[in-house]
Design a protein that fits this description.
4-stranded antiparallel β-sheet, alpha+beta, Jelly Rolls, about 20% strand
Length: about 325
């Protein structure tokens, strides 16, 4: 494929509707060939999405001291400053320079009595909210509700496309691992070729739903091809396959490298939403994705183990401090 196809959900999130089978077929064709698709005809309200973008812009316009007061914690929630992540686990490039971006990471909200939260299990902690922006939390929670419903519908379409019942994978998302990353990319000098907003990488998990502003800058590299643009298309999401979904499907769906280079001359904002299963989910080849001619390509892996290994290597705050020099 030389371009990213558009899959129109026709305004329905019902996996039993007649249109769902057509959407599932189109989705499979896109995700098995290029690993990306534009999703149109979804049910995320434009006003809900724009309120989330407005909240993100206000957060990033806050003072550095305010943002740093929410410094990312051990549960991977909070503010990550400019150039604080380097994608050393990239399998498509040797990455030595940090990403030129800053972000606020919000993960799945947990009630105060959640057993995992009370036990302090990995990734099970409280979100950090900017209390100096009273409208921020309700805007983001409203957005998460709508984009999460879209993500769960897409998981059902993927199940249908793989010859499974629509709800076959639902139970893995009863206690999901989700990330909403409010990203800000500053403008990059046109002559700066080596610096990049987000270095070439593949995503870790199951699916990513990206809302991007009109700045452009997202690029995708299909198998055996060169980088192609993924320009903004009004009222669509950019959907892509993550590493765990590629493993789950024995490579039938592909996790494709992508990167961000902000040459717009202005600030770029995006809202990627990552919908992943529970930390304890065992990712092993699905039964409809293997046969005598196609044995499983990968051993089973616990999603949480894979995730933590990637985070520990890519984010500065998770790396052990170097010992102080002796005078």
């Amino acid at each position: 494929m030389k371009h990213i196809p558009i899959v129109d959900l026709q305004g329905s999130l019902d996996a039993d509707a007649p249109a769902a089978q057509q959407s599932a077929r189109e989705l499979f064709e896109a995700l098995s060939q290029i690993g990306f698709a534009y999703i149109a005809g979804h049910n995320v309200a434009p006003a809900t999405r724009e309120a989330a973008f407005a909240a993100s812009r206000k957060f990033h316009a806050s003072t550095l001291a305010q943002k740093q007061s929410l410094a990312i914690n051990a549960f991977h929630r909070g503010y990550m400053g400019m150039a604080s992540s380097t994608i050393v686990t990239s399998t498509v490039a040797k990455v030595t320079r940090p990403n030129m971006s800053e972000s606020l990471m919000l993960m799945h909200e947990l009630p105060p009595d959640d057993p995992g939260l009370r036990a302090g299990l990995p990734m099970q902690g409280p979100n950090q909210w900017p209390d100096w922006l009273p409208g921020f939390k309700p805007a983001m929670l409203a957005y998460v509700r709508e984009v999460d419903a879209l993500g769960r519908h897409i998981v059902r379409l993927i199940a249908l496309a793989l010859g499974l019942p629509a709800t076959a994978l639902d139970h893995h998302f009863d206690h999901p691992t989700t990330f909403l990353r409010a990203l800000h990319y500053p403008p990059q000098p046109p002559a700066e070729d080596e610096q990049i907003g987000s270095a070439p990488h593949t995503d870790y998990g199951i699916i990513t739903l990206l809302a991007q502003d009109d700045s452009g800058g997202l690029q995708v590299r299909p198998r055996g091809g060169d980088w192609i643009e993924a320009p903004p298309i009004p009222d669509t999401y950019v959907l892509n396959v993550g590493d765990m979904l590629a493993r789950w499907t024995n490579g039938r769906l592909v996790s494709t490298p992508h990167r961000v280079i902000n040459r717009s001359g202005g600030d770029r904002y995006s809202l990627p939403y990552f919908l992943d299963p529970s930390m304890d989910t065992l990712i092993e080849c699905l039964p409809t994705c293997t046969d005598a001619a196609h044995p499983p390509q990968h051993p089973p892996v616990r999603y949480g183990d894979y995730l933590l290994e990637r985070l520990n290597r890519n984010y500065d705050y998770r790396k052990p401090a170097e010992p102080a020099a002796v005078a």
